[in-house]
Amino acid sequence: MAPDPVAAKTPAAEPAPRYFTWDEVAQRSGNKERWLVIERKVYNISKFIRRHPGGSRVMSHYAGQDATDPFMAFHINKGLVRKYMDSLLIGELSPEQPSFEPTKNKELTNEFRELRTSVERMGLMNANHVFFLLYLLHILLMDVTAWLTLWLFGTSFVPFVLCVVLLTAVQAQAGWLQHDFGHLSVFSTSTWNHLLHHFVIGHLKGAPASWWNHMHFQHHAKPNCFLKDPDISMHPFFFALGKILSVELGKQKKKYMPYNHQHKYFFLIGPPALLPLYFQWYVFYFVVQRKKWVDLAWMITFYVRFLLTYMPLLGLKGVLGLFLMVRFLESNWFVWVTQMNHIPMHIDYDQNKDWVSTQLQATCNVHKSFFNDWFSGHLNFQIEHHLFPTMPRHNYHKVAPLVQSLCAKYGIEYQSKPLLLAFADIVHSLKESGQLWLDAYLHQ
Question: Which segments cross the bilayer (predicted)?
């Protein structure tokens, strides 16, 4: 029998979409299978996580959860990313399923998404390239001035100290600048951001971009969430952090350190030791172990340049002394600034709250001033940075009033404090959590 010509022209029916419930998604959060939801679509990321440019752990931290808001926050070219996601799509939420998990505030999330749309329309996600060019030039100027100080005035005590101070400022400010490029907040394309990120963190600082991405995006995805945020991985082996975790540690009768004295030994093993005794050596292990040879090549250019610049003036021992003193001072600068916004805040296991609540309970601000902005690389606006991680830093103060209004409407605490008080709060919070651990350890 001849084939029906009408039937031959009829296209094959599209396969019916697979539907899932939130419970089914939540069950896929382990090692064997990982799913997540973005804009009601369900994706199987089990194999893709190893190829994810932001690192495997960032996606894994949202396995079994809705990842719509972090997806919107971290990517600058969402259309391109969505094309790569098509191969991971396995279905969508059933029509009767809500768009939000029960642990998340629907009204707050919807209003924040409207705020983000308004912020984009206002152009606050667009960078002023002159700002970042001048910022880079001021770093390079300090770098050259440090060398000229020794070349012109000799290597006696005063010129040497001035050189150390200038190089410390170079390293700290380059750290804040690489942070901008790493967050893709300077250029509209990822390629240029990545290239300048390699230059600043690799050539100006001697550290690998891949290591920074691996660590920092986890922090942004789940700030102050134990076992997910690497910035609080010093709990419990060095410090007892947060009220909840400290009490839990005490009840379990665990004592890796005398935590009731941690606000004292923090001054010994915290700010002065992090960079010279841990990061300085760990980054080389990281790039070799993961075979990040491009990062290693960039790092080597920093050390070659440093040796060629200062060896003729100081000799080998002098260069080593200069380098270690700079790393020591930079470490103090880095730790106080980065921890003032987070350590005093709420620390707990991941409660899978909405994006705004997750970020606000883990971050606080330091008052705006010319010095505070420069000293912290605008990370005194930590709240705005965490809500809009790809926003150029010079626009944080512009969006801050809008964020404050949103927080006030929903009864969310928006903390902003003086710089010195923010530093003191680190010590006070360590003392409080140490005492909570001791009370639980002795009496519960």
Answer: 123-142, 148-170, 265-288, 300-326
Joined tokens for residue 297: 């090549």
| Residues 344-366, mean pLDDT to the nearest whole number | 97
**415, 343 Cβ separation under 8 angstroms:** no
User: What domains lie within the chain, and their CATH numbers?
Assistant: 19-100 (3.10.120.10), 129-228+259-339 (no CATH)
Question: What does the DSSP 8-state code read for residue 258?
Answer: -
Look up residue 43 and give its two tokens.
């994706």
Element (H, E) at 20: strand 19-20
Peptide bond into 392 cis (omega under 30): no
CB atoms within 10 A of CB 408: 11
- Find the helix or strand (DSSP H, E) in which 219 lies: helix 209-221
Q: Taking the alpha carbons of 286, 289, 290, 295 in that order, is the dihedral positive or negative?
A: positive
pLDDT digits (tens, 9 = 90+) for 193-234: 999 999 999 999 999 999 999 999 999 999 999 999 999 999
Distances (CA, A) of 153 to 57, 124, 317: 50, 45, 19
| Predicted TM-score (pTM) of this structure | 0.93
Find out whether 414 and 360 touch, Cβ atoms under 8 Å: yes
pLDDT digits (tens, 9 = 90+) for 157-196: 999 999 999 999 999 999 999 999 999 999 999 999 999 9
The sheet carrying 89-93 orders its strands as 19-20, 89-93, 41-44, 35-38
Characterize the bridge pairing of strands 41-44 and 416-417: unpaired
Distance between alpha carbon 112 and the CA centroid of its chain, in Å?
20
Q: Which contacts (CB < 8 Å, 24+ apart) does range 286-292 have?
A: 286/208, 286/210, 286/211, 286/214, 287/208, 287/210, 287/211, 290/210, 292/208, 292/210, 292/211
Q: What is the DSSP string of 413-434?
A: ---EE-HHHHHHHHHHHHHHHH
